[in-house]
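#dry-run=false #mode=assembly
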Amino acid sequence: DIQMTQSPSFLSASLGDRVTITCRASQDIGHDLRWYQQRPGQAPERLIYFASVLQSGVPSRFSGSGSGTEFTLTISNMQPEDFATYYCLQHNVYPRAFGQGTKVEIK
Amino acid sequence: EVQVVESGGGLVKPGGSLRLSCAASGFIFSDAWMSWVRQAPGKGLEWIGYIKNKFEGGAADVAAPVKGRFTISRDDSKNMVYLQMNSLKTEDTAVYYCWYGHFDYWGQGTLVTVAS
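#status=ok
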């Protein structure tokens, strides 16, 4: 089974900051990587699919990159609504696997 | 409008059973490979299993932590998918989401609490 290692688990940021979250897959998953945002009490919402394609309606300050085993989510110019928890997901093979999550809090 | 609605959660004692239901509408359910994802309180997302569409065989599988205890089934005539949970443990306490992963349709989740 593929394991997804996401880092950091927690980070503190200020409004306007640039934030980077990394996900590493235990084996090559090509571009089959999604990024989700989850707010407390809500279901996850997709931000990025196929590693770098921005979901319609998601602000352009979100971007994704990477392929194979190393992936990055970048949020430039942090806004108040961006303070949330972020997850990566590999959808290359079953069983699917989420990263452990990154909680982004206000510094 | 797409709707995915879970039901059946509640409080159950360790060793007990519970069946969760997921009602879907607004998309071609018979084509969908449906999954269940759970989230323990204060923890991350955990994919726990899926079921293929009937055209592709209809097989289901679950993740290692629940294998032998949880099974997934579907009724395409009702646009429903089910999660049968047996031999429940306290560590199964979580919000359980029904998920159509291909299009990322999520339900609102249903809380299962396993406690004596």
